[in-house]
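ERR on first pass: missing label on line 2. Operator R.T. fixed the label and resubmitted. Corrected input:
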Amino acid sequence: VTSLESSLLARSEIDEYFCRWLESDSHWNPIWKSWAKHLILGAGKALRPALCFDFYSAVSDSPRQRVGDGVLPLGLALELFHTYTLVHDDLPAMDNDDFRRGRPTLHRLTSEANAILMGDALLTASFEVLAKASISAENFRWAVQEFSRNLGAAGLIEGQRRDLESKTANFSELQQTHQLKTGKLFSMACILGVLPVEGRDSLWIDRARRWGENFGFLYQLLDDLLDRSATLQELGKTPMKDFVSGKKTVCDLLTPSELQKLATKNLAELRTLAQPFPNPKPILSWVEGLEIQFAEQLKKL
Ligand code: IPE
Ligand code: IPE
Ligand code: MG
Ligand code: MG
Ligand code: MG
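pass 2 clean. output:
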């Protein structure tokens, strides 16, 4: 199973579970449901749920095809949270984007006020759904704490604040910003995959965290490269945004060969971190997928 296949599978699993939750559990009125469907159904790559499920397979005996209902809520919680960050990231006061996931952004479809509220609703819902996971009470308490710490003002949200000031940032500041705004959520995805496994090795959580942060950093680098070279159709969002808004990215500060070196070093580290897991194959396929995408983008520089 390639990482692309894994994310396509996660996309359909998440959509199905999300619809079930929306109709039978959410108590949302039709207007919220229609915005939520606009944002989520059949949209986005579902990378974070897919990684969560693949980490689960890497440390449990369950092959990817049999990731059950107990783990699905973890994936949906991640996707709801991620979608909230995108809705707010696109707002006029932030990146001011008109398109997301090949559709008009929510503030374009309705109003800025509604988009702010929908972000709030998705953020809140992510905790409600997290509570449905088949994990022990102790693990749940730990997960809520990690979720809030990594994705709040000491993590992802701080990364977003720094990102808005990134016009004058140097390389190490940008690297930190990337690790916060993107790395933290990827590491949360990996950690949540390991969490449900009974009798897990305590080192696995730490390894999953480091793998996710590293992967997220590289993924943001790739996103910044794509911003320069891909089309609206390929991206589902407006290209050249960083350039037009004068936002500095790591790609502006490094030469192509320095970028290549950085990617090579980080990809090697991802492989090393993955090796000790009982079944590293699904994780290694993500490294392979990222390597191919990087090679494609670096060729264009
Ligand atoms: C977009 O994330 C935001 C970044 C961290 C670069 P994705 O590229 O995973 O976006 P979707 O979920 O597929 O829309
Ligand atoms: C997104 O970074 C990070 C978060 C939403 C937390 P970007 O602003 O680069 O993402 P895109 O390019 O709009 O998807
Ligand atoms: Mg942004
Ligand atoms: Mg943006
Ligand atoms: Mg971007």
